[in-house]
Amino acid sequence: MSGGGTGGHIFPAIAIANALKEKCNGQVEILFVGAEGRMEMEKVPAAGYKIEGLWISGLQRKFTVKNLSFPFKVIASLFKAKKILKSFKPDAVVGTGGYASGPMLRVASNAGIATLVQESNSYPGITNKILAGKVDRICVAYEGMERFFPKAKLMLTGNPVRQDIQKLEGKKARAMEFFGLDPAKKTVLIIGGSLGARTINESILAGIHEFAGNNIQLVWQTGKTFLAEGEKASQPFADKGIKVMDFISKMDYAYAVADVVISRAGASSVSELCLVKKACVLVPSPNVAEDHQTKNAMALVNHEAALLVKDAEARKDLVAATIALLKNETLKGKLEVNIAKLAFADSALVIANEILNLIHTKKH
Fold this sequence. Notes:
By secondary structure, the chain is of the alpha/beta class.
């Protein structure tokens, strides 16, 4: 399994690995390959899997000194990927996007090993576009992806998500206790992605008193870099249920307490929101390739399944839009019904089945 850089690449990979273990009754050996120094080197072992790191990073869009080392990193990573293949001898190699999956899938496809790419976004990353001609199968979450990939290799599966969030029934009371919240009050969950989102954080910071004044509780994932500012801002409202943390490990509990969710529109977040059937206000990041988060968000907005606040307008509009949604039960109910219709169930198991099919086909 290879992929990383952000939670959007790591968590689908872990979900597929868990599904493979389930399908094979534990009779499967799984090794992850990530990029040295990135968050997968911490999150993957925490999920119970071994991981090897490649010396690889992305090419900066603007010219920087860092770009000078890029060719050397690619060569070093290809050599290490070959070494890993030789020692681990995998039957299949799966890539979920991110820098490390490029070298790993490249050497695997050249060696005739079964290869599968899982593309989570409505606009694919450069690594997966380069690999498309080489790999055996490309699993996607959106229709119309033949614009970017060979049609014969495509399979519409949806995005794999963490298993624990798929069943929230009966968890709300325990989750309220876990976060130390008041079950009688409304709660907003704020997730800017696993690394945080500055625009969302600054918008919440500016309107934190409005949430507190309306008796609204917050579970606020800030990311590491904004944690100190978030904690400082929440101190005057310590008794109002404003909970600030850099990373939420119990996402099932976070979704269980949420009446409304504020989120970026990364592919994994959107897939999770559909599965947990939550009314949400999406703030797409403008700092991504081809503005793909806006495209992800519009796929929901066009089905009247989410509200959208533009990044440039978030500091002015986000808090007010969220409070208005919390007070409008009719609209909130409509968004919940419509977003549930867009969910793909059991994506990880569907992809795990396809990996096993590819292995079987290669061997026969």
